[in-house]
Task: inverse folding
C-alpha cells in the first residue's frame, strides 16, 4: 500500500478546478461576455479599451516556451519508490536507508532527436529521467534506455546534436538518424561505434516505456557515513522485461498513432496496470578503479554485468497520470547536479559537462533562475537561502537580510555540518597539469562494440544488419557509406561485408585483421532470457456477433489482457460493444489477435485477411476459434493457434520469429 505522498499533497495547493466556476479575468473580474470584442457599433473597429481582449490575446501569444533542444518529445507520470532495505553500507542517502521507505517520484520518458511534434516510435535513444522528492531535497537520476553514449567528452555534445538533428539547409529529416550528417559524424568520431551498435539494435525501437530499461549512463559515486566511496552505475529494470517493435511495425505506427508510447503509458495507468521498475546499482570500490580492461569513467563503455553484478535497491511504481501536461511534463526541470548526501560525481568528462549544461538550458527554457519554484520542481522539504528576485519569483522572503555572513539575523540561513545532514563533496585528491587531452584508457572504441555484437542472438544480429542497411542506405554520399562500412569492419567482418554489398560500395575490409576477441555479455541481449507475460498486453478480437465472443472476452480479461473488439461496425453487437471498425483500428497497435468469425461480405473479409497478414508479418500471436476463419497457409505457423489456452501461451512468447515468409 502506498504511504502518504507528500508531493501529491503539495501539488494539490496549486491545482485549480474550473468546472462550474464564473468566468473572470486574471485579476478576478467577472466578465459578462467572452465571444465578442468591444467595437464601435456591430460593424466597427475594435477599440483599445477592450482590456479583456488584450489580456486574453496577449496571454495566448506568449503561451509557448522553447522546447527542449533534445528530449523535446516526451510524456510523464507520478509514482513512488520503495526501498528494499538498508543500503547505508554504500550510501548516506536517506531514501535508501530502510526497508519499505517510500519516496514520491516523477518520471519523464522521451525520444532524443525529434521535435515535440515528432512520432513516438522512431528509431532513437529514449530518455528516462526520474525526480525523487526526498526528505533531503530533490534527487534527479537523468538517463537513457541505452547504457552508453555517442561521445566521451561533453565538449562534443553540440557537435553530435547538430549532426543528428535535421540538416540545416532544408530541415530534413525529422526524428531520424538515417541521413548524411549523422553518419558523417559517426564515421569521423569513431568513439560512437559502441553506441551505434545499440542504436541499430531493437533497443532503439522499444515496444513501450513500460518495457524499457533505464540507465544513468555516467559513472557516479556513492559515499557512506564513514566516507567510504564506490564508483556506481545506476539501472532501472522493468518488471515486465525489455521488449521492442520490429522495424516495419515501428514505421507504420509512426503514421497510424504517432502518440503510441504516451497513449500506452497513460492508458496503462488509468487501467490500474501500473508500470514497475527495480532500481539496481553496479559498484566498484575506489581501489579497483584500474582493475578492468576498460576505463570505468568512459561513458561509451558498459560495466558488463557478468564482471560487475547488480545489486537491487528498491522498486518504483508509476500510479498517477499528470493533471496538466504543460504545467508538469513540459515544465519539469531535471539536472544531474540535483543530488542528496551520499551521492556524488566522478571525473567522467561527459558527466562533468552535463553538470553545467542542465542549469544553463533551464534558464532560457523556463524564463529565468526561479524554475525551482514551479510546483512540479519544488522539493517537498523546506528550502532557504539568500537567492532573491529574478523573473517569476513566487516566494515572498521577509526581512532585510539577503546575504551571508550577517549579524542582523544571527547569520541565518546558516550552513549545516555534514553530521546534521549538510552536503559535503567527496574529498578526492586531484593532481595534474591543465591540458586538453583524453585518457589513454578511452582510446579503445571497438572492443565493447564487438562484445555487444558477439552477445546478440541470431535474430538480433539479423535486425542490426537490416537496420544498418536501411540507415546507411539512406545516406546520399557514397564516400560516407564507404567510411561507415570500414568503421563497421572493426566490429564484424560479416556485418561489414553484408553492409557494403547492400549499400553498393567497395571498401577495404580485407586489410583489417579478423577479430579474435569473442567475449560475450549475455545481459545485453534482449532475447537470451526473455520475460514471458500476458498481463497488460492489448489484443484485438474480430467478431461479428457479440454472443459468440462474450465468454472469450471475459476469459482474456480475467488473464489481465486488455481487449478491444473489432468488427464491421461500431456500437452494440449483441452482448458486447464493438470498439473499432477495420477502418478505425490498425493491426500494428495490438500485441495479438483472435479471429472469431468469418464475414460473408467479400470486401469485409478481405479486410480481415489484411489484418491477419499484418499481425503475422510482425510475428505476433494469432488465435482462432474455427479452421474456416484463418488462412490455411497460416494455420500451422508458429504462434498461430486454436483455442484460448494455446493463444494465451503464444501471447506470452511475445514474438514468433521462426515464421516462414514473414516480412517484418
Result:
Amino acid at each position: 500500500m502506498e504511504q502518504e505522498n507528500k508531493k501529491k499533497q503539495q501539488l494539490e495547493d496549486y491545482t485549480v478546478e474550473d468546472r462550474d466556476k464564473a468566468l473572470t479575468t486574471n485579476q478576478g473580474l467577472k466578465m459578462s461576455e467572452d465571444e465578442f470584442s468591444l467595437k464601435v457599433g456591430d460593424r466597427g473597429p475594435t477599440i483599445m479599451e477592450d482590456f479583456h481582449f488584450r489580456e486574453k490575446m496577449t496571454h495566448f501569444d506568449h503561451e509557448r516556451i522553447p522546447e527542449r533542444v533534445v528530449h523535446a518529445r516526451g510524456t510523464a507520470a507520478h509514482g513512488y519508490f520503495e526501498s528494499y532495505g538498508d543500503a547505508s553500507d554504500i550510501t548516506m542517502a536517506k531514501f535508501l536507508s530502510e526497508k519499505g521507505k517510500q519516496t514520491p517520484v516523477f518520471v519523464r520518458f522521451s525520444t532524443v532527436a525529434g521535435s515535440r511534434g515528432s512520432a513516438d516510435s522512431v528509431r532513437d535513444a529514449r530518455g528516462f529521467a526520474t525526480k525523487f522528492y526526498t526528505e533531503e531535497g530533490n534527487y534527479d537520476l537523468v538517463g537513457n534506455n541505452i547504457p552508453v553514449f555517442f561521445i566521451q567528452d561533453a565538449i562534443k555534445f553540440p557537435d553530435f546534436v547538430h549532426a543528428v538533428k535535421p540538416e540545416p539547409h532544408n530541415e530534413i529529416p525529422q526524428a531520424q538518424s538515417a541521413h548524411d550528417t549523422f553518419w558523417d559524424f559517426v564515421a569521423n568520431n569513431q568513439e560512437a561505434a559502441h553506441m551505434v551498435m545499440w542504436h541499430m539494435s531493437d533497443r532503439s525501437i522499444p515496444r513501450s516505456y513500460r518495457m524499457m530499461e533505464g540507465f544513468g549512463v555516467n559513472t557516479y559515486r556513492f559515499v557512506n557515513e564513514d566516507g567510504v566511496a564506490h564508483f556506481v552505475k545506476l539501472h532501472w529494470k522493468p518488471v515486465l522485461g525489455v521488449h521492442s517493435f520490429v522495424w516495419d511495425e515501428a514505421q507504420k505506427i509512426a503514421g497510424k498513432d504517432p502518440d503510441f508510447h504516451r497513449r500506452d503509458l497513460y492508458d496503462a495507468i488509468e487501467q490500474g496496470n501500473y508500470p514497475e521498475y527495480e532500481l539496481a546499482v553496479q559498484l566498484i570500490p575506489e581501489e579497483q578503479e584500474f582493475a578492468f580492461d576498460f576505463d570505468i569513467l568512459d561513458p561509451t563503455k558498459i560495466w558488463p554485468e557478468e564482471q560487475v553484478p547488480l545489486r537491487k535497491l528498491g522498486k518504483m511504481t508509476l500510479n498517477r497520470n499528470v493533471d496538466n501536461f504543460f504545467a508538469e511534463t513540459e515544465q519539469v526541470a531535471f539536472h544531474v547536479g540535483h543530488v542528496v548526501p551520499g551521492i556524488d560525481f566522478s571525473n567522467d568528462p561527459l558527466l562533468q559537462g552535463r553538470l553545467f549544461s542542465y542549469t544553463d538550458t533551464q534558464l532560457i527554457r523556463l524564463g529565468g533562475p526561479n524554475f525551482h519554484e514551479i510546483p512540479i520542481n519544488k522539493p517537498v522539504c523546506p528550502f532557504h537561502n539568500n537567492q532573491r528576485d529574478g523573473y517569476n519569483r513566487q516566494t515572498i522572503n521577509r526581512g532585510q537580510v539577503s546575504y551571508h555572513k550577517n549579524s542582523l539575523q544571527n547569520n541565518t540561513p546558516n550552513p549545516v555540518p555534514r553530521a546534521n545532514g549538510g552536503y559535503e563533496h567527496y574529498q578526492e585528491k586531484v593532481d595534474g597539469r591543465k591540458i586538453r587531452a583524453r585518457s589513454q584508457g578511452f582510446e579503445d572504441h571497438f572492443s565493447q562494440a564487438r562484445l555487444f555484437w558477439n552477445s546478440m542472438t541470431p535474430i538480433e544480429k539479423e535486425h542490426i544488419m537490416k537496420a544498418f542497411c536501411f540507415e546507411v542506405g539512406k545516406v546520399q554520399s557514397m564516400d560516407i557509406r564507404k567510411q561507415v562500412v570500414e568503421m563497421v569492419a572493426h566490429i564484424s567482418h560479416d556485418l561489414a561485408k553484408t553492409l557494403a554489398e547492400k549499400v553498393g560500395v567497395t571498401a577495404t575490409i580485407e586489410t583489417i585483421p579478423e577479430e579474435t576477441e569473442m567475449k560475450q555479455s549475455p545481459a545485453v541481449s534482449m532475447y537470451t532470457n526473455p520475460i514471458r507475460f500476458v498481463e497488460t498486453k492489448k489484443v484485438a478480437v474480430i467478431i461479428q456477433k457479440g454472443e459468440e465472443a462474450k465468454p472469450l472476452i471475459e476469459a482474456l480479461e480475467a488473464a489481465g489482457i486488455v481487449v478491444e473488439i473489432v468488427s464491421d461496425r461500431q456500437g452494440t453487437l449483441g452482448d458486447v460493444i464493438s470498439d473499432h471498425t477495420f477502418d478505425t483500428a490498425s493491426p500494428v497497435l495490438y500485441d495479438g489477435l483472435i479471429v472469431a468469425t468469418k464475414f460473408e461480405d467479400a470486401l469485409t473479409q478481405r479486410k480481415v485477411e489484411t489484418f491477419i497478414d499484418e499481425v503475422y508479418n510482425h510475428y505476433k500471436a494469432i488465435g482462432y476459434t474455427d479452421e474456416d476463419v484463418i488462412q490455411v497457409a497460416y494455420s500451422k505457423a508458429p504462434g498461430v493457434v486454436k483455442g484460448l489456452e494455446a493463444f494465451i501461451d503464444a501471447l506470452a512468447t511475445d514474438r514468433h520469429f521462426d515464421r516462414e515468409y514473414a516480412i517484418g
